[in-house]
Sequence to fold (477 residues):
Amino acid sequence: MNQNNNLLYKLYELIKLNRLLSIRIKFMGIVVLMVLLLGYSNHYVITKNLSNLIEEQLLQHARSLGENLSAIVADPVLTNNLYELHNIIDRTIRDDIHVRYIFILDTNNNIVVSSLPEQLPKGLREINETVNNEISIKRLQTDEGIIWDLAAPIADGLAGTLRIAITDEYRVLGIKQVTKNIIISSFVIMFISLILAYLLTRLLTKSLFTLYNFTKQLGQGKYDILIKPDIWAGKEINSLNSAFYEMVKNLKTLREKEENAQKARKNLLQKTINAQEDERKRIARELHDEANQHLAAINYGLDNLRHINDIDRIKAEAQELKVLVKEASDSLRALAWELRPKLLDEFGLVLAMKKYLEYLRVQYGLMISFTSNVDSIPVPHTHKISIYRIVQEALINIIKHANAKKIEVAIQKSKENIIITIDDDGIGFDHYDKESLGIYGMHERATLIGGKLNINSNVGEGTTVLLSLEINVEEIE
Ligand SMILES: Nc1ncnc2c1ncn2[C@@H]1O[C@H](COP(=O)(O)OP(=O)(O)O)[C@@H](O)[C@H]1O
Ligand SMILES: [Mg+2]
Fold:
């Protein structure tokens, strides 16, 4: 557990270090690591092969030397010519740098001659012997390093045994030399690679720093940034630069658009407030002009009635007053219809629309047809109000501007969406005052509920308002 924690802590430290180190240091560290790894693996493979090769050659050499020498010494041994034997051994040792020692044993294992000035080291005599009159080679680990001791029969063993030792010294020396060369070349390569890595990372970080500075400026709202193409930077960096430049340009236009939209919104808000005020004034005027006038007339009529004695005249006056009451009630009702579609709460959207259309039909004497393939529209309640207002605005526009004879309203529901069309055969229009809020409001409302509004109109060809909504089952209350 503790060890685990320790390990985790070390890992954490490493990550922290990683974050602190610059790309340059990391990159150069990787270069050093790679060169070292390459040098080490090269060294391993080369010395291993070289060592095997040298060993093989040394053994070959030992074997042929043994065979030759045992043939040469056979005669002097048999004739006990010690002088000749010493000569041969001395010459061999002098001429062959690989030979460490030579001695000859007679058939009783007594030393006949030896190149070693002192006594044979203990156990050396017994350590190797011919096997079935064949040459035998033993690998000995001594204080001086590895030695190959060779025992060769002289005159088929009849004259004793020749012993020669070949040292490993030259193999070790060769390997040392190779190792030295590899280390030197690795350092040279490392030095060159480090310079290259330094230059490359400089190139990289320079571009990154430029981008970093630009980003900082961007953060401070400075969009007029000029990024010059860098001939030293690579293709990728230059692509990054131009992508960045493109982004800044887009940001700039986006910002400008956003600012314009902000202005437009502010403008619109002011207009909406004004429109609200106008609407209030209109309602007040309507109440005053229509209902109040009627009520005043009724009041006057009732006053008048008190002074009339003739029952027939009273009846006639009452009849007239009734008409006035009806007119007053009509104008109040019209106002109420516009202000709040209370039927929406009571009957739902489809029925409320139907009732509203009936009211318009009676009120304005229009030919209005209504078709729907559903009884209710599956959208949230707040959406229903928006839909109702859009339809209402379209209809009021027809009454106000279109001079139409026929209006067709249709609700078409399919699996995925609902399409509501309001079609008139009025005068149509090809442009309109963008300052007016009706159509703008229709679009806004449609967008707010995730729908799409299309108004198709041509002068003299009537107008079609088309509202389409996707049905999203999850949204329905
Ligand atoms: N159904 C229609 N037929 C003819 N003209 C229309 C129709 N609907 C809208 N318009 C024209 O579009 C203009 C803008 O309409 P709108 O934004 O609702 O503003 P408003 O109704 O207050 O004038 C109207 O003034 C009118 O000229
Ligand atoms: Mg309008």
In short: The longest helix spans residues 235-305. The longest strand covers residues 145-153.
